Amino acid sequence: MNLDVIVIGAGAAGMMCAAQAGARGRRVLLIDHATTIGERIRISGGGRCNFTNRTVSAANYLSQNPHFCRSALARFTPQHFIAMIEARRIAYHEREHGQLFCDDSAEQIIAMLRDACDGAGVRWALNCAVQNVERHDSGAPHRYTITTDQGRFQCQSLVIATGGLAIPKLGATPFGYRLAEQFGIPVIPPKPALVPLALPPELLTALKPLSGATLDAKAQVDAAQFRENVLITHRGLSGPAILQISSYWQMQDYHSGKKQPVDIDLLPGIDISAWLAEHRQSKLILPNLLAEHLPRRFAHEWCALQGNPRLLERPISELSNRDLADVAAGLKSWSLMPSGTLGFAKAEVTLGGVSTDALSSKTMEATATPGLYFIGEVVDVTGWLGGYNFQWAWSSGWVAGQCV
Question: Residue 302: left if φ>0, alpha if ψ -120 to 50, beta else—which one?
Answer without folding.
Answer: alpha
